Each structure stands twice: as structure tokens, then as C-alpha cells.
Amino acid sequence: MNKNSFPRGDIRVLLLEGVSQTAVKSFRAAGYTQIEFHEKSLPEAQLAERVAEAHIVGIRSRSNLTAEMFQNSRRLMAVGCFCIGTNQVALNAAQARGIPVFNAPYSNTRSVAELVLAEAILLMRRIPEKNMECHRGGWSKSAAGSYEVRGKTLGIVGYGHIGTQIGVLAESLGMRVIFHDVETKLALGNASPAANLSDLLERSDIVSMHVPETPSTKNMIGAEEFSRMKKGAVFINASRGTVVDIPALAAALKSKHIAGAAVDVFPVEPKGNDDKFVSELVGMDNVILTPHVGGSTLEAQENIGIEVAAKLLRYSDNGSTLSAVNFPEVSLPEHTGSRRLLHIHENRPGVLTQINNVFSETGVNIDAQYLQTAGQVGYVVIDVDATEDQGRVLRDRLAAIAGTLRTRLLN
Ligand SMILES: NC(=O)C1=CN([C@@H]2O[C@H](COP(=O)(O)OP(=O)(O)OC[C@H]3O[C@@H](n4cnc5c(N)ncnc54)[C@H](O)[C@@H]3O)[C@@H](O)[C@H]2O)C=CC1
Ligand SMILES: O=C(O)CCC(=O)C(=O)O
């Protein structure tokens, strides 16, 4: 039976933003009892305080984990983003402190794809305006400006996990699919790459954004890009709010150059359900506004809870970092019958020699050794044939090596 030298009951797990109860159940089932659960994200000062007390932190998209928080979090061992995006976390700062960050790269992709397709159909039929008119007691039964999606061109910007799924589903509705990506991508079905972003914008009846938040995607769609789109085309953004210049979108909608839009993500989003939502797009009849719910289905959230909790538990109990987004990836077998030492260090010459010296000097036999480096950190896992006391001595000797960021002993 593998037992962490740091008892599971002492490991503090902080779960925020109402992550699914499937995560809570996973931690409990694995013997973790100190679980602090919050339905919302916390205000920055309180978040910093709670993170500083935790060993494992689980968030969604609304909690910003800053470099300063990582610097001040002595205990913090791992972070789980119960979502796809990890832009809310200072990943390099976490890496520099030897803290792996995990996410769920697939579990909510179908949910986003379904929402986007539904919105494409609603926008092409001008349903948002008709809906608002009926709510106001109006009645304008007319086909003017309403189109089927069949035969129309869908332009997907960012042809990754979500973009590709949307492409496949859209083709099943008879749409033509073109895409633009910075990487060369295998086109699924009959989809084809556009020559570049401008080409995609000029040819599409529907443009849908599926890129991550990065410096290169910031405001990648602004006044110039909207002007390149066909008159009467519609626009969807369920990626990140920073990708689109909102005043430029509002202007393109007001001028009717863009016939409608669906926006799920915003440059500034309320921290919680009680906070006020403010946007220049509020009150525009031809805009579907949703509160960042692209991935918010029960199916997706339950699966994400299981997936991310499993990654955090595997790291905590076994040392595996498979699919960490900022950390050397090591997939480890169980270590039944041996003690496991984890050593996270600055990725610089000389550290490995010192690690190996510790074992030759103490005469403890190494059963297996795993090493991986990424960016600023190196991660060495050593399985040893040692008593519990020897394990502790080894851990302390490893911790004393210059350049060490963290050590752990898994019994
Ligand atoms: N609204 C919501 O609730 C949700 C939003 N998202 C957002 O959707 C984004 C995309 O998700 P996935 O498809 O799973 O990610 P992914 O990583 O599989 O795909 C993103 C694609 O964008 C491409 N890309 C990156 N920079 C680009 C640029 N400047 N121009 C063109 N292409 C670029 C990448 O090469 C990649 O193929 C996530 O990063 C997240 O921010 C994800 C899930 C839920
Ligand atoms: O569920 C959330 O809070 C965020 C969903 C999202 O945007 C993501 O998975 O990147």
C-alpha cells in the first residue's frame, strides 16, 4: 500500500468556483479529508490568503492565480484548472516554484461545440431580434434576412479540439467549413484551410473564434477584421474575451455590417453570479449574450471534476505529472515495495550530479530513476529500496542541494 509520508488527512485541498462535486468525491474517496469548498471565486486578497494555506488548489476560469500568490504559497504543491483555459494562472511563476498546473483539455469541448452550432443557426435566422420583438409585444413574421445554414460557409479561427468538432458537426448540417490556424492542421471531413485570416474573414458567412488567450490573439479581431467580413455575416466568440475588440464589434453591429453576434466571453467578466455584468453589447437586439457558459453543462462539469481530481491525486499520491501544462511530464508506475523520492529543481548544470552523489554516499540502492526537464525546472523521481528512516534522511539530503525547489517522500 503506497502511503504519502505526508498523511493525506493533512493535505489541504481548496476547491473554488463551484467545481463539480465529482471532484470532492474523488478526493474523499482517496482519503483526503481537509477539503475547503467555495461556490464562487474569492476576492483577490482572500484568494491569496486561502491559497497560501493550501497544498492543492482547484479553480475554473474566474480565479486569477498571480505570480505573487505563488511566491507567497510555501505549502502549495499543485494547481488544477477545472476547465481548458489556463490563462488565468501565472504558469511561469508556478513552474519557477516547482508547482505543476493541470487542466482538462477535452471534457467540455463538445458542450462548446453544441452551443456554437446552435448560435450559428439562431443568428442566421435572425432569431435574437425576433425573440426580443415578441417579448416587447411586436410581431413581424417575415423571411427577410433569414437563411438556412445549409450551404453556407463557416470560418473557424483556431482549429483545435473545439474548432475541429464544430467543423465536423457543421458539415453534417451541410455547411462548408474553412479554417485558419497558426499551426498546420489535418483537415477533417471536407474542411479546408483558408489562405490566411483575411481570406477566411472575406469568405465566411459565419466566423467563429476558438483560439486561446495569448499575446498573439489579443484583439486579433478588431475594426479592420470586421470590415473584411462579408456584409451580413455573423460572428461568434466562445473562446476568450481578450480576442475581440468589443467597441469595434459594437460598431460593426450598429452599422449592420455584421448582422448578429453571439458572445460568451468578455475582456472583464463578473467574479461571481451576484456581480453586475457590464458590456457595450448589452441591450443590442442582434446579440446573444451568455455568461461564459460554453463549457457549463452537467455532463462536462462532472467529467472535468473526475478528470482534474484524478490528475491532482495521481501527482499527490504517485508523483505523475502526465499532461501538466507547465511542468516536465513524467508518467510513473506504482511504487509498491519501494519508497519514492520526488526532487524538483532549477534546470541548471550540476544538480543531477549532486542528486546521484547523495545515493552513492548513503549507499542506498536505486530501483528506478526518472528524469524530465521543461523550461526552468527539472524533475527527478527516484524509487529506492530503503527503510522509512533512510527515506527521510535521503529526502532531507536532497532538500539541501543548491537549486532544489521542492522534495517529497512517498512511502
Ligand atoms: N466559453 C467557454 O466556456 C470555453 C472556452 N474555451 C476556450 O476555447 C479555447 C480553445 O479551446 P480548444 O479548442 O480546446 O483549444 P486547442 O488548444 O485545442 O485549440 C486552439 C487552437 O488555436 C490555434 N491558435 C493559437 N493561436 C492562434 C492564432 N493566433 N491564430 C490562429 N490560431 C491560433 C492553436 O494552434 C490551436 O489549434 C480555449 O483556449 C479556451 O480559452 C474552452 C472551453 C470552454
Ligand atoms: O467553466 C469555466 O469556468 C471555464 C470554461 C472555459 O472557458 C475553459 O474551459 O477554458
Automatic annotation (TrEMBL):
Q: Which GO terms describe its molecular function?
A: (S)-2-hydroxyglutarate dehydrogenase activity; NAD binding; phosphoglycerate dehydrogenase activity
Q: Does the keyword NAD apply?
A: yes
Which biological process terms from the Gene Ontology are attached to this UniProt entry?
L-serine biosynthetic process
Q: Which pathway does it serve?
A: Amino-acid biosynthesis; L-serine biosynthesis; L-serine from 3-phospho-D-glycerate: step 1/3
The segment(s) forming the ACT domain are 340-411
Query: Which superkingdom, per the lineage?
Result: Bacteria
Which InterPro entries does its entry note?
ACT-like_dom_sf, ACT_dom, AHAS_small-like_ACT, D-iso_2-hydroxyacid_DH_PdxB, D-isomer_2_OHA_DH_cat_dom, D-isomer_DH_CS, D-isomer_DH_CS1, D-isomer_DH_NAD-bd
Known catalysed reaction(s)?
Answer: (2R)-3-phosphoglycerate + NAD(+) = 3-phosphooxypyruvate + NADH + H(+); (R)-2-hydroxyglutarate + NAD(+) = 2-oxoglutarate + NADH + H(+)
Q: What are the alphabetically sorted keywords of the record?
A: Amino-acid biosynthesis, NAD, Oxidoreductase, Serine biosynthesis
EC number(s) per UniProt?
1.1.1.399, 1.1.1.95
- PANTHER family listed in its UniProt record: D-ISOMER SPECIFIC 2-HYDROXYACID DEHYDROGENASE CATALYTIC DOMAIN-CONTAINING PROTEIN-RELATED, D-ISOMER SPECIFIC 2-HYDROXYACID DEHYDROGENASE FAMILY PROTEIN (AFU_ORTHOLOGUE AFUA_1G13630)
**Entry similarity comment:** Belongs to the D-isomer specific 2-hydroxyacid dehydrogenase family.
Question: According to its UniProt entry, what is the function of this protein?
Answer: Catalyzes the reversible oxidation of 3-phospho-D-glycerate to 3-phosphonooxypyruvate, the first step of the phosphorylated L-serine biosynthesis pathway. Also catalyzes the reversible oxidation of 2-hydroxyglutarate to 2-oxoglutarate.
Q: What is this protein called?
A: D-3-phosphoglycerate dehydrogenase
Organism name: Panacagrimonas perspica
Q: What is the lineage of its organism?
A: Bacteria, Pseudomonadati, Pseudomonadota, Gammaproteobacteria, Nevskiales
